[in-house]
Specification:
The chain is mainly alpha-helical. It has helices at about 5-25, 30-50, 65-85, 90-115, 125-135, 140-145, 150-175, 180-200. Its EC number is 3.4.-.-.
Length: about 200
């Protein structure tokens, strides 16, 4: 594990939580708060990725691991289809772009740059990055308090812990964050689509 990046992430989480809190109190619509807060988060991920040492090559892990990671993502995406079908084309485009950015950047950082040399025998070293990934989700929980979302903030944090664990297992099994990124984008497409459909149209194009 890259300890410098892990420490940077640990320091950044309270700052991101404060940003989400301030944005939530600003009078902006909740979805706009999420988009602005996530934009700041993505910028920090890009800065962290500048240190290199990560791979997003699409290497498929052993079939049992691949199914364990992909099936929940596909089931969630299928569950979200009615919500996605209610979105206008431009909102669906924003949802798809946000899902692709978030899923790809998160996997490149949390399962890539943070653990650049992690192999199948390094399961113990994978625990801290999974915990940090779940911990980061406390930051947007402030904004989610005003959103209508199944499971609420607690559901998001528990879901992130489960997704993070499955993605890390896939990362260990494949040697790359590419396959977990694919699963993560599907999960984000479903969750962001449900958020957009149940909370109205975001103001940002």
């Amino acid at each position: 594990m890259d300890r410098g990046l892990a420490l940077s992430a640990l320091v950044a989480i309270p700052g991101l939580a404060a940003l989400f809190h301030l944005l939530a109190r600003s009078g902006l619509r909740p979805l706009d708060v999420c988009l602005l807060g996530l934009s700041a988060y993505w910028l920090l991920l890009v800065i962290g990725l500048g240190r290199g040492g990560w791979s997003l090559r699409l290497r498929v892990p052993p079939i049992s691991i691949a199914l364990a990671c992909l099936l929940p993502a596909l089931l969630l995406a299928a569950f979200a289809l009615p919500a996605l079908s209610r979105l206008s084309p431009h909102v669906l485009a924003v949802v798809a772009l946000a899902a692709a950015l978030n899923g790809t950047l998160e996997e490149a950082f949390w399962r890539g740059a943070l653990v650049p040399r992690l192999g199948p025998g390094d399961r113990g070293k994978a625990v801290v990055p999974v915990l940090l990934f779940a911990l980061w989700h406390l930051a947007p929980a402030t904004a989610l308090a005003k959103l209508d979302m199944p499971g609420g903030a607690a559901g998001m944090i528990l879901g992130a812990a489960l997704l993070g664990a499955l993605a890390m297992v896939a990362r260990l099994g494949s040697g790359s964050a590419g396959f977990p990124a694919l699963c993560h984008v599907l999960v984000n497409l479903a969750t962001f689509g449900i958020l957009a459909a149940t909370n109205g149209r975001p103001a940002l194009p």
